[in-house]
Amino acid sequence: MRVRRLAAWTALPLAVTLGLAACGSGGGSxxxxxxxxxxxxxxxxxxxxxxxxxxxxxxxxxxxAALFSPLVDYDEANKPHEVAAESVTSSDNRVWTVKLKxxxxxxxxxxxxxxxxxxxxxxxxxxxNGQNSSYFFEKIAGYADLQGDEPAAERLSxxxxxxxxxxxxxxxxxxxxxxxxxxxxAFYPLPKAAFSAPGVxxxxxxxxxxxxxxxxxxxxxxxxxxxxxxxxxxxPGEQPKVGGVEFRIYQQPTAAYADVLSDNLDVIKTIPTxxxxxxxxDLGDRFQQSPASSLQVLAFPTFQKEFSKPEVxxxxxxxxxxxxxxxxxxxxxxxxxxxxxxxxxAGYRENTIGAAGxxxxxxxxxxxxxxxxxxxxxxxxxxxxGHKDWIDATCNxxxxxxxxxxxxxxxxxxxxxLTKVKAKQPVGLFRMGWVMDYPSMExxxxxxxxxxxxxxYYGYSNPExxxxxxEGAKAPNEEAAIAKYQAAEDLLAEDLPVIPLRYGxxxxxxxxxxxxxxMDLFDRVDLLKIEAVS
Length: 534
Fold this sequence. Notes:
It contains 13 helices and 22 strands. It is an alpha+beta fold. Residues 1-21 form the signal peptide.
């Protein structure tokens, strides 16, 4: 699926209208002959993980999109359509039948069967395995029995094999959007060879994952350097137009940009902020833009006393001039955000955070002092994501408008920042970015803010929010679901566990050695479209 989710680099933004025209319209120079055997080089940050059920950030998901084929993908209207699945059906939105297409094999030659999905999903859902995306199996019957230090069960009772190419999924409650969820990375299958014993992942599997997608691993993951894949000729779906991909790992976006300019890198997924003003001149029609689903926020550790009051959090939000930072730092390449969901999904409303999103320094300072806000604020961010300029600008505003000391602290890599915030180590406010996992309001709300959400790193918990989210999931249709999700978003506006800052847009560039470069709403290069030019 498009691994959406936690985004390491500055997500450069989304023109609120989806009709935004891309510079070059997704094409390249188009002057050379395609070379179907050549490999292309695409920039990523160091992945945190490469196990499907443990990968919830965009760099890891870009790699997994090469190695695996999803059950479903999405059309231009964001509706799911079958890919590795022959059909996904339900008569009541509770019991779903998944039929697999015949002919898929893993890269080690194993036939893909229903067991491979059941084994992978059970592994992901079993709490002692500590998988980052375990949350996505929560809707399946039996999930609760797999939780805790000593679970009552090891396998989801809601998963049943019918035959080698068919299985059923019984949910605890009806969920009309379950088919859409199946495009997510967590729902990829795993081969028998991935396990050393039932339910035990083989040591070292993550270093050279075996999938059933259009590319297979070439060697192993070379940490902080690269991951290489090559075309898998036995793949029964649409074949890629290149012989392989080198996912080259960068810690600094500016270094990647320099390599694109010199044709030493083929695709940079996010133009660094400091290069935005010259990218059009530097790259010509190789500088491109397209809609994205990303959202940038500053998150509060709500479990820390100094940030436990909504009044403190709202005052900080009012002290930040989103419009000025969007203009001065991002050259209007991003859209100021004052809501918790992206304009690309049904149910989006403008300015759901209300007064907390209005820049009002005097009111902010008075409210901050009245609520007893801390005298010093730390803003933590990942140094491999091109965030320093806007973090520094935000700190300067907080110093001036709240009268506090503010400092930006960079962690070397996004994986390092995630590890710290997951362990609840003190990092102050921290920068987070979200790219949707599947097109739904629920995906912007559940993983990030529900009590047990997979990416709820702020300790936020509101039982009424959880209740509304559950009611939305059980709603019989999209309209009814959206009403519940919007009510849940209204509660977020009251509590403000994070400060929405900007909506993203794909601002990317490529070398003269590739063409037909396209990026989707999920911050991923389309690996079936890109072509190498000889």
